[in-house]
Amino acid sequence: MTIRVLKTGDMYRIEGPAKVVVRRGQIYATGVVYGEGQSFTVLRARRLVIKALGDSEVELVLGPGALMEKVAPQEEIVDEWERRIADVDPRGVALIIGMMDVGKSTLAAMLGNKALSRGYKVAVIDADVGQNDLGPPTTVSMARLTRYITHLRQLAAEKSIFLQSTSLERVWPRAVEQIAKAVDYARERWGVETIVINTDGWVLDEEAVAFKRKLIERLKPSLIVAIQVERELAPIIEGYGNVVVLPPPPHVRVRTREDRKIHREMGYGRYIFPPVELALSLDKTPLCNLPIFRGVELSDDLRRMLTRAVGAPVLKAFQAGGRVYAVVQSDTWSLRKVGGFQVVCLPNEFEKGLLVGLEDREGFLVGLGVLKKIYYDRRKAVVYTSSDVERRIGEVKCIRLGLVRLDENFNEVERATNLLKVEET
What we know:
It is an enzyme of class 2 (transferase). By secondary structure, the chain is of the alpha+beta class.
């Protein structure tokens, strides 16, 4: 434990894990003024800037690897962020956009805290599917804010929606609708007055611009906060009047691609471990986005004819509408036109290791799982999932196949994007 005396205006950068207790005076952190006897924490490997609003004394408990260093006011942007958003009405939907590692999640915590301090009911939605702080990777997750926080990770997801992937490039139209669904739920079920949305860092190419603008059109946010390095967000925010543009903090921790991958893999393990093996009937709990057991199974004779047509042994085949889904003894996915049908050729064991979302009747996530095997004759799927999901298995109404393949240690080994060509949305 360390006691530190701060002069009015002093700024310190703290890297966690750490706990700060105000013994006297007032300390500003993440949009909140903490007074005598109040405390806050800085999570491991996270950074936080604090400022003394008067002569103050703080008690510090620094964990392994933690540090606290004094910084000059011009080295940080705390004052500018505070000045630019101090008078913003926090009611409605606040949408935060920006590239990766520009402080979006910190700003989300700050805006949420400010709304809470004014007595509003607040929800936070984390729509960063690759680096989600509230819930599992691959999800849009949401939680109510009932106390001040310094980091979004101090909240636990109350509701999550499985978006199948760790990036939104290929699934963004569905992402728009599912983020809107989360907003509607927060308003209608929770009765919140402020909704703060943290978004992913995909902003630079044409598809990214189309996604973000479509999201703005769909949500009609009362406030757009753009954290901009230069003018990279101009194509997204052009034409909108309710925009506040902020500079990024100069000392935000930049994570490498490998750091982000490790963070996700730890997330999979956290939400699935310790795994239990469940055998689920695909008649009672169908695949949400692949109707292979909802159609008519082809007879042996028709399968043999199909084998000749597609040039590979067909192990099982199901007709659903104008499509035939054929499980073939092959390593490749393909789409063929046979007669008047479109034939979807699924490689045998295509399902092995796929991340799946076990969804309830409203389409919210009950839990993540990893698909081990589909037994076609028994019409069952074996899934590794958490013991919590096992306890709540009665809530699970369908299994949504994801676009990420994991190994037995929850390491990402492949993006299974072929599924997008054939899935039922």
